[in-house]
Amino acid sequence: MKLRTGTTSVQQTFRVKYLYKHSGFTMQNLKHDIAVLVLEGSVQLSPKVAKVCLPDQAADLNSKCYITGLTFNDFTYCHGVKHGFGLK
C-alpha cells in the first residue's frame, strides 16, 4: 500500500509500513472510518502538507467531529469530495 501527499508539483509517495484501523470500523457504514498509518520514510512538511491537529486531554470526546477529504483510485482518478462525515 502507498500513500501520496501534497499536490502534483510537490507530491511525495511513501510505502505504508503499518496500518492501524479503528477496531469498530465496518464497510456497512462510515462510523469509525479512521486509521493511523506508519510510513516508511519521513514526510517533508510544506504549505500543502501539514501535521494533523489532535485534541488535548480536556477535549469533549463525546461531540461530533466533521472531516473533509478527497477519494482517489490508484493516484489517478478522483471520485469526488467527501465532506460532512460525523465522527464520534
TrEMBL record:
<dbReference type="InterPro" id="IPR001254">
    <property type="entry name" value="Trypsin_dom"/>
</dbReference>
<dbReference type="GO" id="GO:0004252">
    <property type="term" value="F:serine-type endopeptidase activity"/>
</dbReference>
<protein>
    <recommendedName>
        <fullName>Peptidase S1 domain-containing protein</fullName>
    </recommendedName>
</protein>
<dbReference type="Pfam" id="PF00089">
    <property type="entry name" value="Trypsin"/>
</dbReference>
<dbReference type="InterPro" id="IPR043504">
    <property type="entry name" value="Peptidase_S1_PA_chymotrypsin"/>
</dbReference>
<dbReference type="InterPro" id="IPR009003">
    <property type="entry name" value="Peptidase_S1_PA"/>
</dbReference>
<dbReference type="GO" id="GO:0006508">
    <property type="term" value="P:proteolysis"/>
</dbReference>
<feature type="domain" description="Peptidase S1">
    <location>
        <begin position="9"/>
        <end position="71"/>
    </location>
</feature>
